[in-house]
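Quick one - first record:
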Amino acid sequence: MEQKVLLEVKNLRTSFFTDAGEVKSVNDVSFHVAEHEVVAVVGESGSGKSVTQLSVMQLIQSPPGKILGGEVWFNGENLLTYNQKQMRNIRGNGISMIFQEPMTSLNPVFTVGNQLTEVLRAHRKMTRQQAWQRGIEALAAVGIPDPEARMKNYPFEMSGGMRQRVMIAIAVACNSQLIIADEPTTALDVTTQAQVMELLMSLVHDHGTSIIVVTHNLGLVTRYADRIYVMYAGRIVESGTTEQLLTNPQHPYTLGLLASVPKLDGDKNEELVPIEGTPPNLAKVPEYCSFYPRCPYATEECKKQKHPALKPTGQTGHFASCHMQGKGGF
């Protein structure tokens, strides 16, 4: 049985207008998330992953940023037609976002309880007492010990992992249908990373929440994601199920990301293979394939043609944008 699509983004374009020119951070990006699905968006820093999700939430700072086109369909409504008041009803209620660094997302001068109850009273129209009790329940649900006492703590009195759990608790308390987790494990130790990811997965299992995990770490999400979108230079260059991307990658950039992930069953003396070079300047993206300067499989033909479109690979739901695809080039 086919799952119902909860979020569908079509041809999204977001640019930042700077002294150096137009920076095309999101360049014709399309993706979707079904109900109860875990989707990962993977790519290096500066590939447009976070800006894509901020565009979905209409949180792009303007100026210098501007959403230039596209559609963002959520529960049958195009969010890009919404004004800021309407979007405030969507944020927290329908879609919650967990930002990269919880210390900057949580206000340091208010207690955790104050911030949790404020969100609940705004989105769930609860009394102060009801919101306080729901906040305690939410902290308990994300595994924070002694939640009543923790409600009275300030963010700086908590560890990074605990603060990240508070951010997840806010999403739990609001019963959001979709959670966008932007680099949710950045700056956390490996054990805490696993705990945070397991906690997010429990929301899918227990509450039927859909989750988008944005990360530069392909190894982190292969265990959890149903599908993966690989982004490079503001575009999606490959998409498919996790199994398809792991067993049959069809874009050289995906191959490079996989080669740079350490393997538990590999030779411990084996060196990781980096992707040579650096990502392109998004203010000067070439007309041809943006991965061309770093691609070990590129030919002169790649430079003569326009940027390749996403094309089916022959496997259902698997797409890649590479001129060499299907030619036995890699």
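second record:
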Amino acid sequence: MHRAGHPDRRALLFGGLVVTTVALAGCSSTSAAPAATSASPEGRPASPAAAFARLMNGNKRWVSGDLQHPDRDPNRRQFVAEGQEPFGAILSCIDSRVPPELLFDTGLGDLYVMRTGGEAVGPVVTGSVEYGPMTSGTPLIVVLGHQRCGAVEAAYKSIRDGKPLPGNLEAIVKALRPAYEQAVREGGADPVDGMARAQVTLTAADLRSNQDLAPLVRKGVLAVVGAYYSLDTGEVEVLAGAPS
């Protein structure tokens, strides 16, 4: 991502690392922690591959209807009240039909979730995505686009027709322009869907290679996955970056 003009954010994030580490350590003490049975039965995945497998297994349950609804009771609420260690960070669209916690069958304290129109990004959004991996070792980021994305369609038509959208909606259009340009170059029967997929892969690649996350990816302690959700089937399709 473009970093110019934002020198203080990295300092704040790394400063937050110390505070967060101390807070989490305090929450793990015997006197402060609720009963161990309040934790997720599986524990936090230790690797990007394990975290990714848990997400995708949850999506399989969502598709089949065989849901477990994990980590959604008062005991879990009490357990995570004093600290959290989410195993994944999801950047998805604001669309009401695409709630990550549901379609991955997860619960309280399992995921950091950022939602913007068409997965549009900027410094604040990028910082929010970086927060878990950089402060508490969250091993997985997923950029999740979806079928029939209204934000992508509106941006596509705005750019194609040269008609700016009102207010701050134009900021979304600007953020999605690279995906529009890639979709136009590649062609295809459904350019809006092509743009939605391009937005996912471009954003995931940008996060994977940025100066703060790239070292974690190279070490193998973080994976950045691009994925696409089908409104028709409920299934999540991996587009890029699945950890082995």
